[in-house]
Amino acid sequence: MKVLSVTPEIFPLIKTGGLADVTGALPLALKSQGIEVKTLIPGFIPVMKQFEGEAVYSYDDLAGGPATVLMGTVAGLDLLVLDAPHLYTRAGGPYADPGGNDWPDNWQRFATLSRVGADIGQGKLGAFQPDLVHVHDWQAALTLAYLRFEDAPAPPSVITVHNLAFQGQYGADIFRLLGLPPEAMSVDGVEYYGGVGYLKAGLRAASAITTVSPTYAQEIREPAFGMGLDGLINTRANELSGIVNGIDTVVWDPSRDPHLKRPFSREHLDGRRHNRAELERRFFLEEGHDPIIAVVSRLTWQKGIDLIAQELDNIVAAGAKLAILGKGDAELEIALAAGTARHHGRIGLHLGYDEGLSHLMQGGADAILVPSRFEPCGLTQLYGLRYGCVPAVARTGGLADTVTDANEAALAAGVATGFQFAPDSAASLTYAVRRLVNAYRDREVWTGLMREGMKADVSWDRSAARYAALFRSLVSPKEESA
To answer: How confident is the model at residue 100 (pLDDT cuts 50, 70, 90)?
Structure first.
């Protein structure tokens, strides 16, 4: 089976979050299922610096300038890169300028990516005719609208929602510039509350919808999590499923991770103490036997970082140290910096993102704190399980699906892997930290939590098999039902 994947980012070429990890790891995992994936991505500056490909299709004028589709391979990934300098050769990130402001023409940049995705889906690339098109999030969602409103037959399609909060909503004035027929500007098409909704269009047009965890698939059917799309999602409930993410267990392998001071394994945990000492040095934390709790996150309200900022004094009073890595809202950065100044040696803060440092934090911290208000899947806690960095997570979405709370029954049965607490509650967060600190002081209990977590299968194997089964059911429905 041949699948076209369309995504705005992919690891290791360009990454702003977990989406890139998923789109980079899933194609590799699907190879073992007999599925060939080619991934279309924009030719952002970091991508073009690492990629050399062969020109396989060209446009004289694509949204105001010439463009070329390049084909090549990087890190085992088969890629199609849309080289359109007038759209993607810009300083800053893939979505925002150096000052953090969204590019005003993002509507066009990602509509164009989607238009090219639809062209490839229709076989215009010649040698590559996909059996199925798989798109990720709002930036690629319009691909399915273009396919749906073309006269030519369209292949079956899947849209994966990594975060429903980001929807790609624009004013109705852009519709005439999208190149869609007039009938597409309807409730049954791309129209959304009087404007144009990219994600909404993809959800309506897809043959199947997936989210990145079973619990999140149910949560988004409710108004509290549906972000205005719960009505549409409920009409498509029979086509909706949740498939929990995996992680790349080669990139994330504590026994051979080059970012660690010392490697370690489930059977031989001694290397963790050397990583812990290095973490204390890098974050200017005082030495001692209190647990180090890591936070690796975008510093935003969704991620619950305001709850951490509110409870810094109580977390330190509970007997924990904090190592925080991330960047985000200015107010939260200021609050965390102020807490770091108040508790020098107990809280360390690194504003920004550093891939290597995030690995060291998983391999050296004792626990990882993820207090998200909503979390479609979350990868941070999966890295924690893999590295014996015990997760403390809000009871929501994929966090609830992947971490088993250390309650008395789970501890007695030997199946606990971390701590859960009610989302959106500062008091419950601090209570979870107190539970964590108490458990840490019992070395037998803590070692059991670490080793049980490290035993968990966080690879893509099972999830890739589920994706493969879904793809086959859409491509060959009669064979599947037989």
So the answer is: confident
107-143: burial string, b at 16+ Cβ within 10 Å, e else:
bbbbbbbbbbbbbbbbeebeebebbbbbbbbbbbbbb
Q: How confident is the model at residue 18 (pLDDT cuts 50, 70, 90)?
A: confident
CA–CA gap between residue 23 and residue 135 (Å, rounded): 10
| Distance from C-alpha of 315 to C-alpha of 346, rounded to nearest angstrom | 10
The per-residue DSSP string of 280-343 comes to: HHHTTPPPSSSPEEEEES-BSTTTTHHHHHHHHHHHHHTT-EEEEEE-B-HHHHHHHHHHHHHT
Cα–Cα distance, 453 to 379 (Å, whole number) = 14
Mention every residue, 6+ apart, whose C-beta is less than 8 A from residue 56: 69, 70, 71, 80, 125, 126, 127
Residue-level pLDDT at 113: 98
Per-residue pLDDT, averaged over 43-63, amounts to 96
pTM: 0.89
Q: Which of 327, 403, 336, 332 is nearest to 367 (CA)?
A: 403
* 3-class secondary structure, 349: strand
Domains of the chain: 2-246+461-481 (3.40.50.2000), 271-455 (3.40.50.2000)
What value does the mean pLDDT of the chain take?
96
Strand 195-197 to strand 169-170: parallel, antiparallel, or no bridges (unpaired)? antiparallel
Distance between CA atoms of 30 and 462, rounded to whole angstroms? Answer: 10
Residue 478 annotated as binding site: no
Q: How many CB atoms lie within 10 A of CB 457?
A: 11
Of residues 303, 358, 362, the one with CA closest to residue 333: 303
Residue 17 is predicted with a pLDDT of 85
| pLDDT surpassing 60 at residue 361 | yes
Checking if the pLDDT of 462 tops 80, the result is: yes
pLDDT(222) > 70: yes
392 neighbors 418 (Cβ within 8 angstroms): yes
314 is written with which tokens?
Answer: 């109580």
Specify which residues 392 forms β-bridges with.
Answer: 369, 419
Structural tokens at position 219: 């949560």
- Tell me how far apart the alpha carbons of residues 60 and 66 are, in angstroms, rounded to a whole number: 5
Read off the tokens for 153: 């037959």
